[in-house]
Amino acid sequence: MAxxxxxxxxxxxxxxxxxxxxxFSVEKGDxxxxxxxxxxxxxxxxxxxxxxxxxxxxxxxxxxxxSANGIGYLPQQTDIQKDFPASVREVVLSGCLNKLRGRFFFxxxxxxxxxxxxxxxxIADIRRDCYRNLSGGQQQRVLLARALCATxxxxxxxxxxxxxDPLVTKEMYGMIQRINKSGITVIMVSHDIPxxxxxxxxxxxxxGQSFFFGRTEEYIKSDLGxxxxxxxxxxxxxx
Amino acid sequence: xxEFFVSLRDSVFxxxxxxxxxxxxxxxxxxxxxxxxxxxxxxxxxxxxIGDGLSHVSFGAMAxxxxxxxxxxxxxxxxxxxxxxxxxxxxxxxxxxxxSAVALVSTSALAIGVAAISSSTGVNxxxxxxxxxxxxxxxxxxxxxxxxxxxxxLVMFVLFYNRIFAVTFDExxxxxxxxxxxxxxxxxxxxxxxxxxLGMRMMGAMLISxxxxxxxxSALQLCRSYRSVVLVSAALSGVCFFAGIWISYHxxxxxxxxxxxxxxxxxxxxxxxxxxxSFVRRHKKSVSGQKAGG
Lengths: 239, 294
Prior knowledge:
The complex is a heterodimer of chains A (239) and B (294). Chain A is of the alpha/beta class and 239 residues long. Chain A is 38% helix and 25% strand. In chain A, 39% of the residues are buried. Chain B has helices at 2-15, 19-44, 48-68, 72-92, 98-118, 125-132, 140-159, 161-169, 171-176, 181-203, 208-222, 226-250, 259-293. With 294 residues, chain B is an all-alpha fold. Classes of the chains: A alpha/beta (239), B mainly alpha (294). At the A-B interface, helix 3 of A face helix 8, helix 9 and helix 12 of B.
């Protein structure tokens, strides 16, 4: 059974239908990139997957014991966070929030999990540092660690590399790839189509009322994919 | 020097020999503690102006209650809680932007209050004490209310500490984990409303919101973790309250400084001190960074 499947999904944003008839599924171990222009409905789709917004029609079905609350979500940064006084450890530990259920405080098990995740992402030695004093790349690592604490199976990353310089972007992509190889399914919303094609094995491209969903190889050959990729290449040459 | 400390000690202990002073100290200390804890969330979420708006609504409600001969607290608490709901909703989704909405509501409430006072009693000492606070403001039942509400707020804050942190730091993430973030915002707004009404008698309507904002701002200058911000602002709030009350009590000849003003001035002093330390610290760091780099 698929980890997550959307059937005939329609979504509306402020009364306008942005997507209709969207169907796709994500298998365990997949690396899916969701691409598309601004306003194509990516954020609305993310909200629906997280269970924060009811789709106008259609359904989202989770398999393998996953639920919307068990998704490890990395949202886009907000203004509030940029100068928030929190230690790295406090932020990462807050990822275990969905494990509290009815309890009030974190147990040893959850604290150990936060420590483990910090070591995994190489931020264990800055665990006492203040989040607001970190570089953009370090901040994203911290948020990625928090997302990892929240899930056993599926990461949902909303533009995780926006605002990062090229070197740090590459590092971030490498880290996400390693996490994916270790068995965690990844869904990433991205603007960066060339990198999406490089790392993901599935692409969902939202384009107006139509969409493409399939393997990356198929996407490259598809009408939509070849058009966007060649446009990107031209731009890079000129730039 | 020794004489100074003896007289200071006598003056401080002297405060406790009056029933009304003990009431003011107990009630005020609890209010200070609660407002600092609530203030952490409000300041970090950029909701500080809501606190200010609510204090004006609180004044308006008190004034109307006085003019109509109703019990001020019982009348003001539900009105201010309602206003808190309204301001939060306006902040989230409306055509009027959040900060303008607060200005709109607070000036309207002030106008209603002033109109109610002018058409009934005129500006007398009662009104003056509502605006700037009074040590005599706390009755026995007020203190009891303070104790009950503060106990509720403190217990809730400790129990929900982890969730409050998560909601404050990242509402979207917290919603995604299945936590009802909107509910926490509402609860914080309601508790803030109650704290403001209770604290207004002593601090005064014009100054009560400083109790919410100042200790947190001072703590933010130096602290590097959420937990330390919470603990330091609670401690600062208590200390500044005590010092402010002492000023109001001690310098009462021929005119006394209202306690609200004394507390705000002490808070301002602490804030400036902390900012200076923070500035020096950063300056040192950047100098040593340059040395290391060069």
